[in-house]
Amino acid sequence: MTANVETMAYAGQTPWHGIGTQVSSELTPQEMIQVAKLNWGVRKVPVQYSDKKGNLKASEDWYVLVRDDNDFVLGPCGKRYVPFQNDEIFDFYTKFVNEGHMTMETMGSLDNGRHLWALAKTKEHFVLPGKDRVDAYMLISHPHQWGKAATFMFTTIRVVCQNTINMALRAGAAKFNVPHMASFSAITMQKVEEALGINSLLLEEQKQIANVLVKKQIEEKQFQRYIATLFQPDLLKTPSDCHLGNFKPTTEAAYTALTRQPQVAQTKNTWWSALNAVTYYIDHEAGDNRENALKNAWFGQNAKKKRDALSLALEYANG
Questions:
Q1: For residue 78, what are the CA distances in angstroms to 70, 85, 146, 161, 273?
Q2: Closest CA to 130 of 264, 270, 272
């Protein structure tokens, strides 16, 4: 296993990225922390330097973040940065798991511990024509990196192909950020819970969006322009060039994913299937390294591309 995904555990079927250690779906968050080998802490250590006389001194303003288990230096940070510990962040799930509202799905470490994540499945979902089920999840992004906040994010996954789709179009509606400026206290956790209390409303909004997409058939020229806009926007400069014959291999692969992705007869060749062609390609096929694909599809440029794909599909579906 290469350095990007350091450790990972997952419950249920093998995830789309195809990596990790399978565990029971009945594990508590703290138990999954142990199995995923995230049972380590982070501390701030002052940066040391030599003065003009060669004496070693500790900086009062600059620090480095160090893992407690192996003394690996995660990176620099400033004086005001407050490290969040793995067990306290992921303990957010415990209340919901104990009450039967969530089950742990996956948890892991990227880039030697610089970026951790966990995903829990909620009891909420919606079903589209053809028994096309979409489940709701809570994703926590937990970076040990200066300048990056812990993020609690509401997302959805299409069951038939495990595509991850963030379908909330309102800016900031589906996530809550906690900057490393104070301790991750019970008060902070309560604020996160309150911010995420709109999840039922968001899921209903997502259901309405999906129902718009499933009712409108795609037209070939529109679909080619849709794919070009997302993967090869230079073609848009000359509208007559915006067609399959000018697609680069990556763009063509995204285009042909429409036929490779799992489809149901009731929604075949709709803008719902067009959206899922893009998310299927990004999650399952894009890139040569599955570990890089995981990070990019959830937290990187491809996560943004999937959001753009949703907005654009909705534009076309609304005519």
A1: 22, 17, 8, 43, 46
A2: 264
